[in-house]
Amino acid sequence: AQKITQTQPGMFVQEKEAVTLDCTYDTSDPSYGLFWYKQPSSGEMIFLIYQGSYDQQNATEGRYSLNFQKARKSANLVISASQLGDSAMYFCAMREGGNRDDKIIFGKGTRLHILP
Amino acid sequence: DTAVSQTPKYLVTQMGNDKSIKCEQNLGHDTMYWYKQDSKKFLKIMFSYNNKELIINETVPNRFSPKSPDKAHLNLHINSLELGDSAVYFCASSQTTQYFGPGTRLLVL
Lengths: 116, 109
Description:
The structure holds 2 protein chains of 2 kinds.
Chain A: E1 4-5, E2 10-14, E3 19-21, E4 24-25, E5 32-39, E6 46-52, E7 60-61, E8 64-69, E9 74-79, E10 88-96, E11 104-106, E12 110-115
Chain B: E1 4-7, E2 10-13, E3 19-25, E4 31-37, E5 43-50, E6 53-57, E7 64-70, E8 73-78, E9 87-94, E10 98-100, E11 104-108
Parallel strand pairs in B: 2-11
Antiparallel strand pairs in B: 1-3, 3-8, 4-5, 4-9, 5-6, 7-8, 9-10, 9-11
């Protein structure tokens, strides 16, 4: 079974609109962390935002926010006021537990296209 | 300042050759990783080291051998390269959040 599911392989959004990228996860570990990364066409992996399973508030970083719904096991990324430079591949990822064996599992990604 | 660096950025080589990719991080992190990203963009962990000790070894052919001379470096050596090894290889380091290097694009001809 997939641990991280991103159901949208691709999305097209008009510039300046808000975007929600879906991510659901599967874990029985009470302690985990959720991440979003951006991979533009240049190829580098850019860390965007992190949410810990015990964090009470949804994480925010500038135009990025993470809509964390623990009961639904979802961690959607919201990008406000999208820009052309937001066009990229976006990966949701999860780390289970807090041990040294802190493997991060990635979803298959969503390719976001921002239209002018 | 570059946090996680990898060399080379591009590597084109013939099948059967042996090659190495180097990775260095200046973040003071204890844990370093190697990931492989295939042509469909799927990222899969290969290895992780914590303070020079191998922690994760994910069913990777033994042609791949990581080496960590110190906790700031994690190199990847690949013997007898095969066509299927063509991919982008990312190094990463973490304390809590993983930070990635720029990737090494390996093409095996």
